[in-house]
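Possible regression after last week's pipeline update?

I re-ran a chain I had predicted before the update to compare outputs. Posting the input and the new output here so someone can diff against the archived version. Not blocking, just want to make sure nothing changed silently.
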Amino acid sequence: MKVILTEKITKLGNIGDTVEVKTGYARNYLLPNNKAIRFTKENVALFEAKKAELVARHEKAKKDAESKVEAVKNAKLHMIRQAGDTGQLYGSVSSRDIARELKEVAGVSVESAQVMLGSPIKSVGAFDTKIALHPDVIVDVKIYVAQTQDEIDALVAGKKLTFGTKKVEEEATAEPAKEEVKEAASEEKSEEVAE
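New output (post-update):
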């Protein structure tokens, strides 16, 4: 379906661009959210009449986003979650969780679609992601996920968390002792059989 974009959309085009998109994308997302209009002669004339207004609205939104950049950069996104012995989370941290945390910590309201996380966070650690406050204003943020505030403080200081090493060491030292007991027991049985 051919549409005229009424706002800038990342990886698609700028205001006024005529693009060919899939019908479902146009009907379910672009047209209902007023991000595009159908390409017809009447709509081309309508768009030309409103173009200055749309560009002014775009510039205002960009300035509003630029005013929030410092608040987002300085936001401390620390998430305390339960995790197993290996550092794997019971659940995950999604873009929705990050958007909610950003609103609570920095007072900046963003949609989960504006958080460019990729895949959900499923382990403890420090993670880099981006927040798209506007298609032209993208901010890098760091997210710290841990089980306690002490672990988060260690991650912020640049230390690396280790999980399960004590248990692995204990198991490694305990297993040879079990083998020695088994060997001794088998020697006693062979002596009894020999008698």
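Follow-up from reviewer: compared with the archived run. Residues 165-182 have pLDDT under 50 and may be disordered. Marking as no regression found.
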